[in-house]
Design goal:
This protein is an alpha/beta fold. The protein has 3 domains: 263 residues, 3-Layer(aba) Sandwich (Beta-lactamase), CATH 3.40.710; 102 residues, 3-Layer(bba) Sandwich (D-tyrosyl-trna(Tyr) Deacylase, Chain: A); 72 residues, no CATH class. It is 28% helix and 22% strand. The chain contains 13 helices and 21 strands. A 5-stranded antiparallel β-sheet has the order 2-1-21-20-19, with helices on both faces. A 5-stranded mixed β-sheet has the order 17-8-6-3-18, with helices on one face. α2 runs antiparallel to α12 and α3 runs parallel beside α7. GO terms for molecular function: carboxypeptidase activity. It holds the Pfam family Peptidase_S13. Belongs to the peptidase S13 family.
Length: 518
């Protein structure tokens, strides 16, 4: 028997040791491990070297944080700050909230003569078009007024008289995305860029000045045409700029004789005077004579002659968030202040906003918000609080309106895809990722919702700051696409093509909607 012992030992050793010696390689990571590996790989992109990259991904169903990179470090959010404003406004004002614009008078009548002033009173409606002022004028004419002996007085006292936000760049003032905020204003188109005028510049004959048409027609700006028409086929070089602090808009450069008309937006210096001018022109078109305009609060007890209500907030959210409209955000901040504190100002409104955020579970002490749009570089938020907000609002009754107003990846329709209409098409994120974009010079952000491959809804916040060169939006897209594939196994590369917009100035740092390029 003894002679078999060594043999048995060898056989047993071979049986036990053989599988250990021939163990297969470890399997590729899956689930959250694979997600962390892939997101780490995306964020290792050399374009982010020396920059700030804050990323948080949450699973609302389990309250699990699936990924975290610099979660508590504040960063400039750019337009993803609008998520906080929209949520607070829905909570404070309600999705059915509307703005009113009224025409009132305290003056006596003598037949068709109004022996005093007409007061045009606004409460912040950013959707007032020239056609809406025309309808108000028609109501006045239908009341029998044919001559106004006094003036049309613009009443913008519903808000304070501070037109621009803290930390807004002075050189952004002429541009429509930085238009003054007023309780009484005009928008030129159904993008509802309140406080702006659309200028249509057309060529004439070579060597002759270009033709410029304002929409709507107004005397609120003075157009100084210095641009000339160039030879057919020549290089266009057109500039449309409102002078800082003034009403003069200089149109300079050249436009080829065979060029299509060019449309440029410019902000106005005084939105309330702009509204009074547009309304007065409409009155005259309806046969009501008015010789003067001015300003002044509406007297108590003034009787109503005409009125117009805006669309409800749930509908206003669509152009607000899809097109990243800065003016809408600031109107909502001031309206929250007026609604809850009786003061339509940024300090009052931001106080209400932060209070509402606290009720939603966000810690206001960890945020710095000085405006509602994110246009200010002074704003600072950590991505974990932004992701927490997106998680918490899911329980609110107004959440379907909130989510539906977010840009939807890869959908060409501007009022559906918004600022994501040209991004992530042909990937698992298409028509899946609903998220708010944000862009400033050296700032790019994306925050919102994505349905993962296993059907669960995830929330995410991506804040990139202080990068050089073009905005790395492709990295944001790669993160969103990877989340759409979750849980899944680790992948070597995200299914999103790299985009390099080039440049680091204001043009490359602006939201695509601000340049009307999406």
């Amino acid at each position: 028997m003894r002679r078999w012992v060594p043999v048995l030992v060898l056989i047993l050793f071979g049986v036990l040791a053989g599988p250990l010696a021939a163990a297969p390689p470890s399997a590729a990571p899956t689930g959250s491990d694979a997600l962390r590996a892939d997101l780490d790989r995306i964020l290792a992109d050399p374009r982010l070297a020396g920059s700030h990259a804050g990323v948080v991904v949450r699973d609302p169903d389990t309250d699990e944080v699936l990924y975290s990179r610099q979660p508590a470090a504040r960063a400039t959010p750019a337009s993803t700050a609008k998520l906080f404003t929209a949520a607070a406004a829905l909570d404070e004002l309600g999705p059915g909230h509307r703005f009113r614009t009224e025409v009132r008078t305290a003056a006596p009548r003598d037949g068709s003569l109004l022996l005093g002033d007409l007061h045009l009173r606004g409460t912040g409606d950013p959707t007032m078009l020239a056609t809406d002022y025309d309808r108000l004028a028609a109501q006045v004419a239908d009341s029998g007024v044919r001559v106004v002996r006094g003036a049309v007085r613009a009443d913008a006292t519903w808000f304070d008289d501070v037109p621009l936000g803290t930390g807004w760049a002075w050189d952004d003032e002429p541009y429509y995305y930085s238009a003054p905020v007023s309780a009484l204003t005009v928008a030129p188109t159904e993008d509802y860029d309140a406080g702006t005028v659309l200028l249509r510049v057309s060529p004439s004959a070579p060597g002759r000045p270009v033709r410029v048409e304002a929409r709507p027609a107004t005397g609120a700006i003075r157009v100084d045409v210095r641009a000339t028409t160039g030879d057919p086929g020549s290089e266009p070089a057109l500039s449309v700029t409102r002078e800082h602090g003034g009403d003069r808009v200089v149109v300079s450069g050249s436009l080829p004789a065979d060029a299509e008309p060019v449309e440029e937006y410019t902000s106005v210096r005084d939105p309330a005077a702009y509204a009074a001018d547009v309304f007065t022109r409409a009155l005259r078109a309806h046969g009501v004579r008015v010789d003067r305009t001015g300003t002044g609060a509406t007297p108590d007890g003034a009787r109503l002659l005409a009125e117009r209500e805006s669309m409800p907030l749930r509908e206003l959210l669509v152009p607000f968030l899809k097109l990243s409209n800065n003016g809408h955000a600031e109107v909502l901040v001031k309206e929250m202040g007026r609604h809850a504190r009786g003061t339509g100002s940024w300090p009052a409104g931001l106080d209400v906003l932060t209070g509402r955020l606290a009720e939603l579970g966000v810690d206001p002490a960890r945020l710095r918000l000085v405006d509602g749009s994110g246009l200010s570089a002074v704003d600072g938020i950590p991505p974990d609080q932004q992701a927490l907000l997106l998680d918490q609002v899911r329980s609110r009754s107004w959440f379907p309106d909130f989510k539906a107003a977010l840009p939807l990846a890869g959908v060409p329709d501007r009022m559906v895809g918004g600022t994501l209409r040209n991004r992530m098409a042909g990937t698992p994120a298409e028509r899946n990722v609903a998220a708010k974009t944000g862009s400033l010079s050296g700032v790019s952000s994306l925050a919102g919702y994505v349905t993962a491959a296993d059907g669960r809804e995830l929330v995410f916040s991506v804040l990139f700051n202080d990068f050089l060169g073009g905005a790395p939006t492709d990295l944001e897209d790669a993160i969103a696409v990877r989340l759409a594939q979750y849980p899944g196994t680790a992948q070597r590369a995200p299914a999103v093509a790299r985009k390099d917009t080039g440049g680091s100035g204001a043009e490359s740092g602006a939201e695509c909607s601000w340049t009307k390029s999406c």
